[in-house]
Amino acid sequence: MDVTNIARISRHDVVEGAKSIYSLILLIALWELITQAGLIHYYFLPPLSDVLIEGYELTVSGEMIQASLLTLKRAFLGLLIATVLGVPIGILIARNRFVGWFFDPIITIGYPVPIISLIPVFMLWFGIGDVSKIILVGVGTFWPIAINARNSARAVNQNLIWSARMMGTPKRNLVWKVVVPDAAPGVLTGIQIALPLSLIITFVFEMVAGGGGLGHLEIQGVRSFTSTQTYATLIAIMLIGFVLDGTLRKIRRRLLRWA
């Protein structure tokens, strides 16, 4: 491929990339223009430029980085617990009658419950430290992971199982050799759904109970009437969610190249 073709491809990628975020660029420009013109009170919506300066200062001071790491630690540990428990339980619900008999009613009752409504209960049981936040994230993200694993395991093509049995695969190995690989896309979808949910639960719990983290940093901005801090923290959590979602999508494509 010559230099001309490379340059043409690069220009095409830039143009397509700009088209994909044109609405975001327009929204950012409107935010800055409207606030600089004084059409909205500074406290309710400060200019984006001031918000970015505040975010830079919080980052340089280390406060934003420390809060981000604390939030991510709580969210990831809770998500890890949910994944370790939710995936095998979901698959077993689909493949084992006793496990399905036991867990299906629990999922039916527990899944519709708004997880945020359990924050006061977890504060009573576990306090306001890391443990209560991590466990609540684990409970809240368990449902989508387990349900997607269950549904994916139930949807496994029966012909694959019959074929594996005819080829001599022992019955006890069918789950690992047939069910799990075929259900993998659905399982990863459940984890992808649970990822932003883990951040939401952690963020809200930090706002309600304190104890550091991005949620606490954002609510501090409201309490101290520093709206630039509130918006800077909000942008930080949005960027973190965007990066994590993109990373998980890349991991998914790499793991499921065979699918």
Give the topology.
Blueprint: H1 3-20, H2 22-36, H3 48-61, H4 63-95, H5 97-110, H6 119-126, H7 130-154, H8 158-166, H9 174-209, H10 214-223, H11 227-255
Shape: elongated
Q: Which structural category fits the helices and strands?
A: mainly alpha
Q: Can you tell me the number of structural domains?
A: 2
Q: Number of helix segments?
A: 11
Compact overview of the structure:
This protein has eleven helices and no strands. The protein has helices at 3-20, 22-36, 48-61, 63-95, 97-110, 119-126, 130-154, 158-166, 174-209, 214-223, 227-255. It starts with a helix and ends with a helix.
Describe the structure.
By secondary structure, this protein is mostly helical. The chain has 2 domains: 3-36; 48-255, MetI-like (MetI-like fold, Orthogonal Bundle). The protein contains 11 helices and no strands. α4 (63-95) packs parallel to α7 and α7 runs antiparallel to α9 (174-209). It is elongated. Mean pLDDT is 83; it is low at 5-9.
Key features of this structure:
MetI-like fold, 259 residues, mainly alpha, 2 domains
